[in-house]
Write a sequence for this structure.
């Protein structure tokens, strides 16, 4: 199965071309996307990546996309591109939460709280039960430092996992079990997406949506009409 995966959720993004099946996963190549120019770079980079490895777009078996949480603008660009390609080619999509990718990057199984810096003194937090390379989602929410510490502490034996040093400090200063990982990129997104695709966890282009967790400023500060 040939997969194209994108991650445009952060300041910098990436596109990955990979293949895999029930027994194996192979990253063919991953290319970076410079922050702030996703809309101009994404489609040309996809075309170049396919051409460099002598693939046509018709050979893609499915698409994987990081659906959030993260930058509102970046996510919209990535999802719009994948929606368009999947609709034209009539291919399935696997939508992957970055928090799930973080949880699966943790060492060992168990109850995992995956966290990403959300700015404004808050964190995107996903609670997962991880076992055998699969993550069962318990819930995802936006928490401030006090709420995050209290929530993880209320689950004895649970671990906090994050790529962000600020959140790592929150956890360790509170005496919580915490693990730092590298920020996931589109190769990790592709790997998790392959598992979803093989398990039949697919979405159609019209059903693909961003997992923002936090409301946009426009929604937060909008005033009700008269």
């Amino acid at each position: 199965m040939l997969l194209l995966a994108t991650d445009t959720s952060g300041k910098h993004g990436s596109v990955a071309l990979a293949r895999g099946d029930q027994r194996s996963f192979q990253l063919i190549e991953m290319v970076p996307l410079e922050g702030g120019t996703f809309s101009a770079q994404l489609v040309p980079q996809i075309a170049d990546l396919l051409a460099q490895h002598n693939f046509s777009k018709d050979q893609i078996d499915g698409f994987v996309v990081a659906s959030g949480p993260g930058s509102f603008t970046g996510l919209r660009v990535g999802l719009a591109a994948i929606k368009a390609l999947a609709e034209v080619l009539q291919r399935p999509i696997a939508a992957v939460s970055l928090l799930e990718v973080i949880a699966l990057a943790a060492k060992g199984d168990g109850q995992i709280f995956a966290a990403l810096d959300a700015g404004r003194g808050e964190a995107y937090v996903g609670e997962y039960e991880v076992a055998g390379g699969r993550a069962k989602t318990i819930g995802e929410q936006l928490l401030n430092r006090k709420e995050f510490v209290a929530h993880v502490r209320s689950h004895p034996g649970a671990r906090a996992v994050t790529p962000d040093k600020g959140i790592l400090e929150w956890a360790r200063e509170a005496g919580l079990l915490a693990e730092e990982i590298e920020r996931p990129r589109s190769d990790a997104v592709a790997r998790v997406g392959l598992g979803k695709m093989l398990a039949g966890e697919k979405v159609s282009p019209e059903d693909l949506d961003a997992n923002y967790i936090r409301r946009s400023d426009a929604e937060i500060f909008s005033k009700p009409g008269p």
Strands lie at 2-7, 13-20, 25-33, 62-68, 93-97, 110-119, 122-131, 134-144, 159-162, 178-180. The chain has two domains: 2-97+184-221, 106-180. Confidence is low (pLDDT under 50) at residues 216-226.
